[in-house]
Amino acid sequence: MSSTSADEILTRLTAMRAHDVPTHGGRTLAYVYDSGLAEADALGREVLALCGSTNGLDPTAFPSLLTMEQELVATAGRLLDAPSGFAGVATSGGTESVLLAVLAARDARPDVAAPRMVLPTTAHAAFHKAAHYFRVEPVLVDVDPETKRADPVAMAAAIDDSTVLVVASAPSYAHGVIDPVTAIAAAARDAGVRCHVDACIGGWVLPFLREDEPDQEPWTFAVDGVTSISVDLHKYGYTPKGISLLLHRSADLRRSHFFASAGWPGYTMLNTTMQSTKSGGPLAAAWAVVRHIGMDGYRALARRARQATIAVAAAVSDIPALALAARPDATLLAITTDETCDVFTIADELLARGWYAQPQLAYGDLPATLHLSISAATAPSVPALVADLQAATDAAALSGPVAPSEDLVAAASSVDPAHLDDATVAGLLAVAGMTGSGGSLALPERMAPLNALLDALPAELREALLLAVLDRLTRPRPIGAH
Description:
Blueprint: H1 6-17, H2 38-50, H3 63-79, E1 87-91, H4 94-107, E2 116-120, H5 126-134, E3 137-141, H6 152-158, E4 163-169, H7 181-190, E5 194-198, E6 228-232, E7 244-248, H8 251-254, E8 259-261, E9 269-271, H9 281-317, E10 322-324, E11 332-337, H10 343-352, E12 358-360, E13 369-373, H11 382-399, H12 406-413, H13 422-431, H14 448-455, H15 459-473
Parallel strand pairs: 2-3, 2-4, 4-5, 5-6
Antiparallel strand pairs: 1-7, 6-7, 8-9, 10-11, 11-13, 12-13
Helix pairs in contact: 2-9, 3-9, 4-5, 6-7, 9-11, 10-11, 10-14
């Protein structure tokens, strides 16, 4: 590969990014979060570049990063009602915060040979990843089918002598509701078990809504029995990705996810998180943006996003084919449909109109839904979103619910997820019309038929098939190929 000029590289990058969903403007309703504050965005980018080459591995080499982390954790502690003596760390994102919470709970109980954690079925998939990585068995407890909230009585009944962690969400990503943390944490406390509250998506917005909504379900460290909380800054803190915080009620609770190794002739490795070398850019950018926006600024942003969410929720209730999966407690919406249409086609129709909404597949007795994360930047465009949602629903009803072919469902269902080889994957892709020239993977422009197929399959088979597709997507190709 020969050297390429900066201008050529930037031109190519711009061309490649033309197919990405927009990160600003409030029309991408998952994955990215937009404050709508141009000055804050510019500051974040500038500080990200300024500190991108710093390394958070050694706080004595870069004491500025240590100071910024301490200040961010302290700010979060005030928001989350942390007691004196609390401690925290900055991580690369919500998943790493969850992984560390599970790891800390497991390693604090060396007396438990086969550790387990009790999860509502709506707990984020990051907990399943932690279960896989750390061999902590997930014990899944069904949520209330109407409210979509965790069932504290059933969760308490699931706790036994091998339980090392109990989990609640504030709010759940899938449905946007706060679990009954008070009762769940009390059951964990009475059993001598840690209780983690996953507030990755709500932790930087819910505290600013308490003044307006005093009946908000308690979920912070003010709740007796809550031992740790995760909160992402790159979501409703509106900072550049990726940065999250994990807070523990005490430093003792944090210590079991620290790592040290002097068992080699190099430097003694000391880590507070999963990563060793880590760029200080996201941490520094978060520190700068949080200080720039300030608490009053975040309060205004939270109110703006919440009011937009309530407005969209009200509009959904006025569209006959649509319904809310649950009453939203924060800034997330989950939408279901009646038998005249489906969420997968609506997602495609919205994308054609410039909106990215995230389809969520059915799970157990919980139906497929359309997920919307509403940012502050979405607020001015709520009338346009509502009009396009109505139009998308009308178009979906006109075409009728999408249904995969019976032959394709049968072919996919016959596959053993444990023995899914490359030839079988190639055959399924060909039947699904997802094979391009030379046998390459070709994703369809409209994803509804593929999502409908996945929705008809068991979760284990979905996972295997999607991993196979991901494997194909990420295989190397010639540099510069389009």
